[in-house]
Design a protein that fits this description.
Elements (H helix, E strand, L loop, with lengths): L1 H17 L1 E6 L9 E10 L18 E10 L5 E3 L4 E3 L10 E16 L5 E4 L16 E2 L3 E5 L5 E6 L2 E2 L12 E7 L1 H7 L4 E7 L14 E5 L23 E2 L4 E2 L1 H16 L8 E6 L12 E2 L3 E2 H16 L9 E6 L1 H12 L7 E4 L22 E3 L4 E3 L1 E4 L5 E4 H11 L8 H9 L21 H11 L1 H7 L1 H8 L3 E6 L7 H13 L8 E5 L14 H4 L3 H4 L1 H11 L12
Helix pairs in contact: 9-10
InterPro entries: AB_hydrolase_fold, Mycobacterial_A85_antigen
Keywords: Signal
Protein name: Esterase
Amino acid sequence: MKYQLLLLLGLITIVAHSQTTFSVTFPTAQSSASLDGRVLLILAKTSQPEPRSQVSDAVETAQIFGVDVDGLKPGQRAIVDASAFGYPKRSLNDLAPGDYYVQAVLHKYETFVRKDGHTVKLPMDRGEGQNWRTAPGNLFSKPQKISIKAGGKQSVSVVLNQVNPPIDEPEDTKFIKHIKIQSKRLTEFWGRPMYLGAHVLIPAGFNEHPEARYPICINHGHFPSDFDGFSETPPTANMDTTDYLERFKIHGYKKIVAQEAYDFYKKWTSKEFPRMLIVEIQHANPYYDDSYAVNSENLGPYGDAIMYELLPEIEKQFRGIGQGWARFTYGGSTGGWEALAAQVFYPDEFNGCFAACPDPIAFDAYTVFNLYKDKNAYYAEGPFRRTPRPGQRNYLGQVKVTLEETNHRELALGTHSRSGDQFDIWEAVYSPVGSDGYPKRIWNKRTGVIDPAVADYWREHYDLLHILRRDWKTLGPKVTGKIHIYCGDMDNYYLNNAVYLMEDFLKSVQNPVASSEVAYGDRAEHCWNGDPTQPNYISRLRYNTLYIDKIMKRIETSAPKGADLKSWRY
């Protein structure tokens, strides 16, 4: 009887909670036209920062629900109810009674009629680097305090009466120049004008030495709003140092960053520093803040567009040498994967890559599981139990979030790989196109069940270890001596697991030997990039100077006879 009573009370609670609904509208003042997109409803226990800024993988995350809208008219209601998928709670039914601060966002989608015949709706980047919180033109509401009660019907109205402003383009300085081109390849693929951009750090003496031609280094990474980590002015003596960075447990990190940026400027303009071009690329797209710098069925030919359209234009405008022996690439995390991928897919076009903490470079160590042998991405499964797989950890191995949780956050943010986040961009880049025009799911986003057919496609097209192993006879002679990989052995995302497998291959391969470098940081977390003499919070700020000696040595030993080794050494 007691058990039946408890069960009945539970059902009553569920029914009571399921009566809470949210009605989201926008006024004509914000848009007179109908809008497509994703309505995101966020509930938080505090008002600061705004609820939309509290959604994360942290245990303190705000609650978020999402629903797709097509042709939503001004004044028309988008209903968020118990059927909307949420994170970390799956349903409005699961929310406890109490006070909340609620905010809504409409992440706007555009319609693309692609060359492959598919029509898809996606959030075009608008200069912000694919961030639904700040994307210009996205509508949002002011936070409002509500109370969810334990019984009765409740309908909460939320009005999207605010809009994110446009973002200004960065301005040129003496040393930092900006370039943007319309890509013929990408425009043809997407059926609308598509652009590539770059921030170029030019050397001291560029104007005084018009005869000089320069080597070029591409610093890959996430969307750069401008060239980062370079400042002609030092931090002020009275700069506030009360800020605290939880990740590194350090106060005053903003001043440290400012000082490192000024120190880089002093090195860059010193007589001893080799003259070269350093480039950061802007290649945000409708799925993510960058394209992973490869050709993709879903994103289009970004690799070729960067390699054969953007890079030649940069070298033309800024007097690059324009030959493979004088090109290098480096980066960390996403940029680490891109640096290695550029070297593998365009082996003759680069003379060395420096890949730090790269995204999984072997998919049989896809973070913590084997994409080809395991059946479920979220759980290790046996006959009598299922163990959740970890998604992030700290240097002590303490787990921050599971793979299921972080993927469910993405699913709340967007269906069809449209969250603009990590697992969805891997899927968008690596997967074939599905029958609906969107990326084929590598696994069921709700359950984690892996699709082996899609995994096979990933292996043949983007598993960098598999490709090197498969094609070493022809690829090996072109990349020997060029591969450098660095990773912390306590990488927060378990990226060191794939590096171990790559290291085993590079050490053992013959005809030719790889002559590569793989190094690990003891207890180092994500973004360790190969300097054991400095703490991670310093070395991560020195990508643009860390590999210079190795690059210069590589140029000296590998440049072809008659190569220009002097015009840029002044």
